[in-house]
Amino acid sequence: MDLSDLDVLSGALGVALLLSLVGVLALVLLLRRSRRKVKALQRQLYQPPGSRAVHAAGWAVKKAVDTAVRVRQHGVQGLLMTSIEDLSRWVDEDSREIEQVIGPDGTVTVFFSDIENSTALNEKLGDHGWVRLLQSHEELVSGHVSRRRGHVVKSQGDGFMVVFREPGDAVAAAAGIQRDLDARTSRWMRRTPIKVRIGLHVGRVVTRDGDYFGMNVATAARVAALAEGGQVLVTDGVRDRVDDHEFVEYAEAAELRGIAGKHRLWAVAH
């Protein structure tokens, strides 16, 4: 091996070493960033051990271990092209999803809806027609939820569970849905008018694997169950936080099945 070959080899080793140092530094900085974000989100939302944020932190640690394995197996390129990209994407996506639905005071507004007399409608329309009507209904609901920065947690055919960061956005979305249903904006809804019941409640919740749990979630579901088709009912907590909508008292002391105490409910004038 002559002197020129040694110079080339030395230069290649120097570049590889530099890339390794850059990759390790980037990973360390990214892990610190993800740790700060997870801790901040945990402080904003009360969650017991085992909650989504804790699982997320554990996932980040696992990714760090996987990264070390990739470095041994695939070298610097494997580190730069897989682990850092995966971790960066997780930090950004998970943080955005959680931050979008947690209010400044750590609460979440929970929205439940369902179609009144859905079983009878299914029987009347047949399965094919019912599925088309559900698709039209889903497009209408999803459009209003998206415009008000809500997040659809799950859909159960004729019903939705949605979370919002701000009670005002939840009320506006619910009122907009009812207005469009009244106007029968969809071809399928003009042929078969439907009535939807909506209930809203605000409070702290527990999250796990993308779902939401707790008494405040159950309260929102019970409020929706009391609503009549075409109606939006909200609890005192929602009413007290929203100033730009008109409310009519629905019940001074309503009983919610399985939930202790009396609850004052309000109907949204839409």
Written account of the structure:
The chain is of the alpha+beta class and 270 residues long. It has two domains: 3-101; 108-268, Alpha-Beta Plaits (2-Layer Sandwich), CATH 3.30.70.1230. The chain is built from seven helices and nine strands; from the N terminus they run H-H-E-H-E-E-H-H-E-E-E-H-E-H-E-E. The strands form two sheets. A seven-stranded mixed sheet has the order 2-3-1-4-7-9-8, sandwiched between helices. A hairpin with a 2-residue loop joins strand 8 (247-256) and strand 9. Mean pLDDT is 78; it is low at 42-65 and 67-72.
Task: Give a brief rundown of this model.
The protein is α+β, with helices and mostly antiparallel strands.
Helix and strand run = HHEHEEHHEEEHEHEE
Characterize the main sheet.
7 strands, mixed
Extended strand count? 9
* Widest beta sheet: strand line-up: 2-3-1-4-7-9-8
Class of the largest domain, according to the CATH hierarchy? Alpha Beta
Number of domains: 2
Task: Fill in the CATH topology of the largest domain.
Answer: Alpha-Beta Plaits
Low-confidence stretches: 42-65, 67-72
Gyration radius, rounded: 26 Å
Task: Tell me the CATH architecture of the largest domain.
Answer: 2-Layer Sandwich
The CATH superfamily name of the largest domain is Nucleotide cyclase, GGDEF domain
Percent helix range: 55-70%
Residue fraction in strands: 15-25%
Alpha-beta content class: alpha+beta
